[in-house]
Structure formats: structure tokens, C-alpha cells
TrEMBL record:
UniProt xrefs under NCBIfam families: rbfA
GO molecular function, a single term: ribosomal small subunit binding
Gene Ontology CC entries for this record: cytosol
Keywords: Cytoplasm, Ribosome biogenesis
Compartment(s) where it occurs, according to its Swiss-Prot or TrEMBL record: Cytoplasm
Source organism superkingdom: Bacteria
Family membership noted in the UniProt record: Belongs to the RbfA family.
Gene Ontology BP, a term: maturation of SSU-rRNA
Subunit note: Monomer. Binds 30S ribosomal subunits, but not 50S ribosomal subunits or 70S ribosomes.
Described function: One of several proteins that assist in the late maturation steps of the functional core of the 30S ribosomal subunit. Associates with free 30S ribosomal subunits (but not with 30S subunits that are part of 70S ribosomes or polysomes). Required for efficient processing of 16S rRNA. May interact with the 5'-terminal helix region of 16S rRNA.
Protein name in the entry: Ribosome-binding factor A
Species this chain originates from: candidate division WOR-3 bacterium
Lineage, uppermost ranks: Bacteria, Bacteria division WOR-3
Length: 121
């Protein structure tokens, strides 16, 4: 990612996170954490990745509510971020945290198992 893309993506991530935290009063969104943002090369499309505490049903519910509030979020973003073309927003669940938790759980399970060579000692 080029420097300008990274700066714009970081600004979008920060502003969208603040909008969700302070201006969206929909309880269906849940406890959302905006983790990162990626932009297309032409800066016309932005994908905002987020994580949610809860089960898969809660994640899908939060995604649906954020998609429903996309117009409001984009409007608030346009008031704070001055660009010639404001990117179209897309929301996606960030699966990195779920994968990290799965790997940690597998490593914890492996710690409980003794290697075969050390059983006879």
C-alpha cells in the first residue's frame, strides 16, 4: 500500500470508529471494534474491517446493522474527511482475531500433551 493510501485508510478507520462509537445509537450493532481499512488503488472503494465480541449470529447481526447505517456513516465521514471523491464504504468481518484465538487454543491443547519421547523418563 502506498503512503497516501495508507494515510487515507488510517483516517477512514479512525473516523468510522469514532462515528460508530459516538453517533450510532443502534443496539443491534453491538460491541464493534474497527480493526483496519483497505482502499482500492483509485481510492474509490474502502473496505472497513471490524470485529465483534459474541457468537456468529451476533457478528452477522452487527454486519447487517452496519450495512444499514452505511449511508449515515458515509455522510458523517464526508463532513470530516475532505476529498475530491469520497470512497464508497463496504463492511467486512475481520477474521484475523478468530483465527488467532483458534491457533492459541490449539497451542494450549498441544501443551497439555506430552511428547512421546518423554513419557518413559
Amino acid at each position: 500500500m502506498r503512503y497516501r493510501e495508507r494515510r487515507v485508510a488510517d483516517a477512514i478507520r479512525d473516523i468510522v470508529a469514532e462515528i460508530i462509537l459516538k453517533q450510532i445509537s443502534d443496539p443491534g450493532v453491538g460491541f464493534v471494534t474497527v480493526t483496519r481499512c483497505s482502499l482500492s488503488r483509485d481510492l474509490r472503494n474502502a473496505t472497513v474491517y471490524f470485529s465483534v465480541m459474541g457468537d456468529d449470529a451476533q457478528r452477522q447481526r452487527s454486519l447487517a446493522h452496519l450495512e444499514h447505517a452505511r449511508g449515515f456513516i458515509r455522510y458523517q465521514l464526508s463532513r470530516r474527511l475532505k476529498m475530491k471523491f469520497l470512497p464508497e464504504l463496504h463492511f467486512a468481518l475481520d477474521e484475523v482475531l478468530a483465527q488467532e484465538q483458534r491457533i492459541n487454543r490449539l497451542l494450549d491443547e498441544m501443551e497439555g500433551l506430552e511428547p512421546e519421547g518423554e513419557e518413559n523418563k
